[in-house]
């Protein structure tokens, strides 16, 4: 039995359990997947919940807000993506050891290539430097980014990501909020890694008039899929990569890490999940 879970806050609406259970059924693997909600957002509460899961014999767990950086502290070993990003969303438990991975990083790469193909990412404006922003910030260089311009309402958080990217040998610079429009016009790609556009926080983090000079756009938000950000990008003729692409492929990558089994025939899995959960999009 592969006993899996998701640790996070405000996760009751997550579709991760459904995706992993479906992957288990389609690959003839016995899988359970249950939500795990610590009592609060503290490192202590996260650690206590993870200890409970260890005792209960969990095979692995996904990790989401606000624990992606905290999770690293409990890992016995981390992979290269975690070392780069300073965050983990996937913990595998095997032979008494906890191994940390970042499938936001790998999932974005697969999603980008699936939608945009071999087009180099080029110069990118990244809005939002939190956990997923850090993963995407580094993953962009795997798909041909030449420079990442980082903006965040928390300047210190944005500068921290810029410094980490530059220290890794790539190119990044901080963009203050008042200069975002100008940076957008100079960009080849636009990325939203803020929660703006979610059902609970509607809106758009970049004014629609700043879309049009770029080639592609990505929004990490996937509820709804057709965010105002992606609709503006689509209207301006940009190729779009959706938050659902990221959700789906990071889940595939995590499932393969947990089970050690490659997922075959990914397209039927996508189609079945899309149909079963009545996901609707005019963009993808």
TrEMBL record:
Pathway stated in the Swiss-Prot or TrEMBL entry: Metabolic intermediate biosynthesis; chorismate biosynthesis; chorismate from D-erythrose 4-phosphate and phosphoenolpyruvate: step 4/7
Keyword set includes Oxidoreductase: yes
Pfam family for this entry, one: Shikimate_dh_N
Lineage: Bacteria, Pseudomonadati, Pseudomonadota, Gammaproteobacteria, Lysobacterales
CDD domains referenced in this protein's UniProt entry, alphabetically: NAD_bind_Shikimate_DH (cd01065)
Record's protein name: Shikimate dehydrogenase family protein
Entries under InterPro entries matching the protein: Aminoacid_DH-like_N_sf, NAD(P)-bd_dom_sf, Shikimate_DH-bd_N, Shikimate_DH_fam
Keywords of the record: Amino-acid biosynthesis, Aromatic amino acid biosynthesis, NADP, Oxidoreductase
